[in-house]
Amino acid sequence: MIIRIFLLVILMLPFSPGDMESKFPTGNAAGKNDRPKISFTFDDGNTDDMPGYAFRDWNAMLLQHLEKEGVKAIFFVTGRNKTDEKGQFLLSSWNDAGHAIANHTFSHPNYNSDKISFEDFREEFLKTDTIIRRYGNYVKLFRFPYLKEGNTAEKISRFRACMQENGYRNGYVTIDASDWAINARLQKKLKQQPDAPLAAYRQFYLDHLYDRAMYYEGLSQQINGRHISHTILLHHNLAAALFLGDLITMFREKGWDVVPAKEAFDDPVYQNQPTNIPAGESLIWALAKQSGKFENILRYPAEDEMYEKEKMDRLGL
Ligand SMILES: [Zn+2]
User: Fold this and answer.
1) pLDDT tens-digit map of 272-288
2) Which of 176, 217, 263, 313 is the most buried (most CB within 10 A)?
3) 103 alpha carbon to ligand 1 midpoint, in Å?
């Protein structure tokens, strides 16, 4: 009898479920969960010409990168410059290329400011909703300008209720960065020197965004214990028009899966509603803050030009 049990145990050992999984990853799910996931979102929507590039040209360059890489994004737009001919063209060009159009207020106010009330902020939100809702790929996601979600408990809870009443969800960012600051330096340079070499700007853009992605992925692993579907915040600007193809390629080469941005928001992590006051920043930053376990590594604001200034100065960017 003892020998039989012993034999049985020996026979069963190699077939424990854990062993099966590590040796023979089954199905797509196991393989996919092993890799970090990123999706791309673009904010604001600029209709200006850039140094050396007319508006329609640089916008087309950005869209071509997405098309070539087979990536579907979400475009979070302000309404104020979308009602004229250029603005309407911009929204149509993204909508018709299969990207989602979402709400980023009318005039980009900072909801953490005492100068803006809940009522004013609601007007901002509703006004842009009327501009974007006629587009076929309109989605009810709202992104707070500067990722500032309110500076008092009352403002925070009233706007959350307002989004819910209107069928909207928070268009959270998990990977925040300062691509806009790099873009500002790049434009300044091209204004002064139209044929300036761009390799150093490109490299800084790639390095910075990868550094921020790894930071938020590392923090997210500690909080969520898994690879979530990230949403990276980029802006609709010349830097993206020039370097987005390289950026997507870099993430893929480093082992990340690129997922459609609309699909990323199905990840349950986006159901969270952190309780911090003031509210906002990256969702991962906010969850880390709420946990009280990461005080030593959380800076405020989470991202800003001031953190990159010295590095860019040193590189002569
Ligand atoms: Zn914005």
Assistant:
1) 999 999 999 999 999 99
2) 176
3) 10
- Candidates 93, 59, 84, 115; CA nearest to 240 is 59
How many A from CA of 303 to the centre of ligand 1? 13
pLDDT in tens, 116-139: 999 999 999 999 999 999 999 999
How far, in Å, is the centroid of ligand 1 from the Cα of 183? 14
Distance 79 CA to ligand 1 centre (A): 11
Query: Domain coordinates of the chain in residue numbers?
Result: 35-314
Rounded CA-CA distance 76/261 in Å is 11
Residue 233 Ramachandran class (φ > 0 left, ψ -120 to 50 alpha, else beta): beta
Distance (angstroms) between ligand 1 centre and the Cα of 16 equals 51
Largest CA distance in the chain: 88
Q: How many angstroms separate the alpha carbon of residue 24 from the centre of ligand 1?
A: 45
d(CA 67, ligand 1 centre) in Å = 23
Q: Kindly give the distance from the C-alpha atom of residue 237 to the centroid of ligand 1, in angstroms, as a whole number.
A: 11
* Short-list 102, 10, 76, 40, CA closest to 250: 40
Q: Which residues have C-beta under 5 Å from ligand 1, the single-atom ion?
A: 43-44, 145
Residue 53 DSSP one-character state: B
Q: To the nearest 10°, the Cα dihedral for 262, 264, 270, 271?
A: 70
Which among 234, 225, 233 has a CA at the least distance from the CA of 291? Answer: 225
Class of domain 35-314: alpha beta
